Amino acid sequence: MNEPSPAVAAAVEGELRLLDPVVRASAEVLATLLHPEFREIGTSGRLWERDTIIAMLTDPGAQHPGPLTASRMRGDQLAADLVHLTFDTESKGLRSHRSSLWRLNGSRWLLYFHQATPFIDDPFAEV
């Protein structure tokens, strides 16, 4: 297996940071990882923008999915300033396929777009 490019490695590192409950609870840290034009389509189908996702994730009264574990993460550098990651997560029995786009913003890789699609075990699905 080939070593990932520095861009893919940076995106993977950022994505793994975003799965950390401590990071998800800090508006300041989230703001350093999310692109100013960030958008997300969550597992519910709801469209989130940067400010609303930061507010939801850092609201101590909001429902949170709990710790997320990632598997099958892979990345492709689509352009000098764009990386696409795909991976699966699991939390409290909910499994999701995930897709993220990371954009180079100055000298930092920031999450630009994210989509999560819930799934159940499918014997006909690709591995």
Largest sheet: 6 strands, mixed
Text of the CATH class: Alpha Beta
Structural class: alpha+beta
CATH topology: Nuclear Transport Factor 2, Chain: A
Report the average pLDDT across residues: 91
**Strands ordered across the widest β-sheet:** 2-1-6-5-4-3
The beta-strand count equals 6
Poorly predicted regions are: none
Number of helices: 4
Helix content: 25-40%
CATH architecture: Roll
Q: How many structural units, i.e. domains?
A: 1
Share in β-strands: 35-45%
Rough outline:
globular
Termini separation (Å)?
Answer: 17 Å
Radius of gyration: 14 Å
Structure, explained:
This protein is α+β, with helices and mostly antiparallel strands and 127 residues long. The protein has one domain (6-119): Nuclear Transport Factor 2, Chain: A, CATH 3.10.450. The protein is built from four helices and six strands. The radius of gyration is 14 Å and the shape is globular. It starts with 5 loop residues before the first helix and ends in an 8-residue tail after the last strand.
